[in-house]
Design a protein that fits this description.
101 residues; Helix Hairpins; elongated
Length: 101
């Protein structure tokens, strides 16, 4: 393996933490969705790194399924953002408080 596995884990932890902070701190719906995508990419990075470390293809196959899942998630969530933007004229999550009840 060209890059040591613990460097890969550190990078994935940093990416996951940045995505988590984007989800928790931001109030813009699009930025929250980008944070979720960053967290999923960090999980995929760990799967590919572990797959290369143990020389098994299982992690890489899981990443292909993860990429299919994220593409479906992006298309559905962007359709929801467009619909909610048309209804409320905003993508700020504070504008959607009545959906909570």
């Amino acid at each position: 393996m060209l890059v040591p596995f613990h460097h890969l884990l550190i990078l994935a932890c940093i990416l996951f933490f940045l995505g988590l902070m984007a989800v928790l701190v931001r109030r813009n719906l699009i930025m929250i969705l980008i944070g979720v995508e960053i967290m999923l990419n960090a999980a995929g990075l760990v799967l590919v790194g572990a797959s290369a470390l143990w020389q098994q293809l299982d992690g890489q196959v899981m990443v292909i399924f993860l990429m299919a899942l994220t593409s479906a998630e992006v298309s559905i969530s962007l359709a929801m953002v467009v619909y909610l933007n048309r209804c409320k004229q905003s993508v700020d999550v504070r504008a959607f408080n009545e959906l909570r009840d």
